[in-house]
Write a structure and sequence with these properties.
about 110 residues, two-stranded antiparallel ribbon, two-stranded antiparallel sheet, 5 helices, about 60% helix
Length: about 110
Amino acid sequence: MQNAVNHIRQWGIPSAKKAIEFARKNHLSYVIEKHSNKRIQVVYLKELVASFDLVEEMGGYSRCKFYMTGMLLNGSDSVRCPDTKKVVAKAVLEKALDDYQQISIEFLEE
């Protein structure tokens, strides 16, 4: 998982999406990073990209944290995004936020 996190931190989400597409077309379960020759499991890249996309779709990190607080205060197990009308389970949003934190450079200094 750490290789996937490092890849996204260094090369970004677009690069991860290209690697996922390359692996899909070639029926691969892993890709080799060109610059470091590190093996990256595609399943981990997919998880991290999906988490990033979900957090962004829901309005960003701060807004998702706000939704989490609301669920905790209300005892809810899901939230509906007012913009997208998408309903997301608490556990799914929690994982997405954790993944987002791992791959986002802004959290490295904290």
